[in-house]
């Protein structure tokens, strides 16, 4: 009888975990959707960029994936709204990269907080 109860508890717990973390079938569907999305992005970028610009963007993606993703999103948005006049060359991509880097530029400041150590010269000994 204890084995039956234990098995029922195990099945219930497994069902809870699957509901909480998702079924493996849902993970496969999610992966397929992600693949389709990346394929669509790549096809749109292939239509918008020429070969040298795509090479530059892929090199940027290796070094700074966040910045490359932001540029890709910007290019796809421009293509959807029809503001691009044709394929973007490498020099055009460089200009876009400069615009994006100016918008996301971080200002770093350094402040020195020096510790004040009790020094015997600070005190007046009479």
List its salient traits:
126 residues, mainly alpha, flat, 5 helices, 71% helix
Summarize the structure.
This protein is mostly helical.
What does this structure look like?
The protein is built from five helices and no strands. It is mostly helical. The chain has helices spanning 2-21, 24-48, 51-63, 65-81, 90-103. The longest helix has 25 residues, at 24-48. Helix content is 71%, strand content 0%. The relative contact order is 0.08.
- Percent helix: over 70%
User: What does the average pLDDT come to?
Assistant: 82
List low-confidence stretches.
Answer: none
Using the CA coordinates, give the radius of gyration: 28 Å
Structural class: mainly alpha
Termini separation comes to 90 Å
One letter per element, helices H and strands E, the order comes to HHHHH
Number of strands: 0
Tally of helical runs:
5
Strand content: under 5%
For the largest beta-sheet, the strand count, sense and barrel status come to: none
From the spread of the alpha carbons, the general shape counts as flat
